[in-house]
Amino acid sequence: MLTDLNLTPQPPRHLDADVCICGAGPAGIVLALELARRRPDWRIVLLEGGGRSLASERERILYDVGLAAKSYAVAASRRRMLGGTSGHWGGWCKPLDPADFTAPAAWSVPDWPVTLDDLQPYLASAHVWCEIPSNRYDPDEVRARQPQRFLDLPAGSPVAEHLFRFSPPTRFGARYADELAGQSNLDGLLHANLFALERRGDRIVSASARALDGKPVRISARRFVLAQGGLETTRTLLNLRGDASDDGEGLRSPHLGRYFADHYGVSPGTVLAPAELGYRRMADQDTAVMPVLAPSPGALRQAGRQNVCLMLAHDPADDSLPASYATHAALGFSTRAFWSYRAQMIVEPRPHPESRITLTDTRCELGLRRAHLDWRLHPQDTASALAFFDDLGTVLAQSGQGRTRLTYEATPARLASVNGANHHLGTVRFAHDPKDGVADADGRIHDMENLYVASSALFPRYGYSNPTLTIVALAIRLASRWAGESAEAGT
Ligand SMILES: Cc1cc2nc3c(=O)[nH]c(=O)nc-3n(C[C@H](O)[C@H](O)[C@H](O)COP(=O)(O)OP(=O)(O)OC[C@H]3O[C@@H](n4cnc5c(N)ncnc54)[C@H](O)[C@@H]3O)c2cc1C
Known about the structure:
Blueprint: E1 2-4, E2 14-22, H1 26-38, E3 44-47, H2 57-61, E4 65-67, E5 92-93, H3 116-129, H4 139-145, E6 159-166, H5 172-182, E7 186-190, E8 193-200, E9 203-210, E10 217-226, H6 230-241, E11 264-266, E12 269-274, E13 282-284, E14 287-295, H7 297-303, E15 308-314, E16 338-347, E17 356-363, E18 369-374, H8 380-398, E19 403-406, H9 412-416, E20 451-453, H10 468-483
Parallel strand pairs: 1-7, 2-3, 2-10, 3-7, 4-18, 10-20
Antiparallel strand pairs: 5-6, 6-14, 8-9, 9-10, 11-16, 12-16, 12-19, 13-14, 15-16, 17-18
Helix pairs in contact: 1-5, 1-10, 3-10
Bound molecules: flavin-adenine dinucleotide.
């Protein structure tokens, strides 16, 4: 059932549930429906602060964020409504690479407590939730049908190829509203703004939510999940920590709020390469795919660099590497026609402890302290990206397939103007050892018995893949682990 607290004359004052989920974006909706389907004997409550359409200014201001020196388009990066930010996501999807689950020792970052093999069983259904027509990511399958779209990369090359796929993009609110409404063991409350978690020792006993002009609804549950997006989940946890010190574990972990990161782009320069290459969004068998160039696993491991991917956009107007250059027989170019391309990269940000969310002393209308974001880029980010561009130049030159020309300079002004891709990563990172992270492999806050997080805030290392497919796979994994329990377990 879906109840809008703004439209119901006598909303409930108290609900009892097995699981209370706060936030109805992709993470919250998938977790709620997976649990409701798998456990008809359980009662699920899903709280959503927004309604079915865009938030009013008064609602949006509830989670305004203060900014430090570096700007960040916070308002454009979230939607407070049923379906959350999937209300305007782009639908780019790709599982993380195997290398993204472990971090080089020099980074002082824990490995993921979950491996790609652990996630694999849930990735297939994550594709169904995101309405992606295929879960096959081998670029060679596309190459077999469209060889002219690909370079001939020599064996052992430090440059490899990967593939993105695309969700339509699924607007999770509109797409799954009927199913939420029709699920008899699920209570979805709209315009239900979480404003308090009642804690007894290491347990949360109730959550309180209210419409802005309404009375509170109190939800008692065995388990609570924060699925409010990467920024707001972190803010809720920091508010719950209150004035307690940050030298402990779980809620008191010094890692809570740190390592805020977002993917961003670098345009390193120009590439002269064979005509008609398809390292960009293109059609294949009536679906959209995007082959990209990326470091090979061996190159990544050896160099301890960040992951990165590179797309190419044909730029006939760019004469910095003119196509006629390729006609100089002495340079040993292959006999194919050549084009000039502009290179665009997505950079994996390296976790940076000083890039962080803290609380200010001002409070929103709900009484919660406001968040403050100090987004910082790690100096190694662009170094890794440019090293890969250099590798690509070497491979192209040695194989007679082209040249690269670097035009990028990492000036302070340029770094200050970098925009994020609206992915809120890292601030509640999970790790096996409570000393390394805030939550455990299930997203349970280490020092709390029944408080969980479902969000890209859990990611300890980020890769360059967009996060939503992995967020959804993690939510399905959590539902599957809980649903396997006997009715008495997990209290
Ligand atoms: C312009 C744009 C393009 C994007 N493109 C892509 C892309 O191509 N691929 C990709 O993978 N990702 C993309 N993203 C990111 C993607 O939208 C997020 O990764 C995804 O929505 C995160 O899901 P979530 O459920 O964790 O959080 P959200 O979708 O943010 O949902 C959180 C929910 O919690 C609710 N909430 C917050 N606070 C409270 C409270 N106090 N009480 C009750 N409810 C609350 C919010 O209203 C919201 O509904 C894009 C984002 C933007 C902005």
